[in-house]
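Consider this one:
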Amino acid sequence: MTAIRSGTEMKELEFSRIPSEAGCWRKVISQGRRMKFLKGAQIFSRLTDDSFIFFLDVGEIWLTRSTLDGREKIIWSIGPDSLFGETPFFDELPSRSAIVAGTDSTVYAFARRCVLEEILPRHPDLMIALFRSLAFKVRVLINQAVSLSLDDLPSRICKYLHLRQMEEVSESGPLVVRPGLNQQELANLLGVHRVTLNKSLRELEKAGILGPYSRDEVYILDRPRFEELVYQNE
């Protein structure tokens, strides 16, 4: 048994998924306002009376940006035990992006006064977790900008699929990856039209690198060539 890459190396490749590093906020979860959101709901639309930092208890959250003509870009996604909403909380400017529930989600919202006057003064370790959350987001955005500038689309597709495979796998047999996104959502994440993405997926399939794409599973048929695309320009 051997891992594709170590956890540290995997983090270096992150360009869409924010690692969960803020689970320590669970110890103050009773001070937050518990809210449930169905898939597709916007988080900020129900909070207009104050500035909040959010903690994701269950589900998945996406940061997205849409254009006037309806095109959408998924900037990053997070899973449970993660913080979000830090930027508008600190700069106090209206957010131009949408924070959307990628799946049915349970969120805890912490109001500004509670965070600044109660939580952080009493729990300085949560300040470190907050800094780490912001640092991860900066890293993701930098890596994403570099990938969009330097990598071709097949490489970006393979990098995303590689990020979804975090467990050890055997040396023989095909590797199975669970993307978690349909083709339209993956196209939004990678900043391309769905038709363009589909064409590139078909080319990878014809080349024998990937099996047919679905949100539930994709077979990696040629690992050496797959890894060449993953680590292109690294």
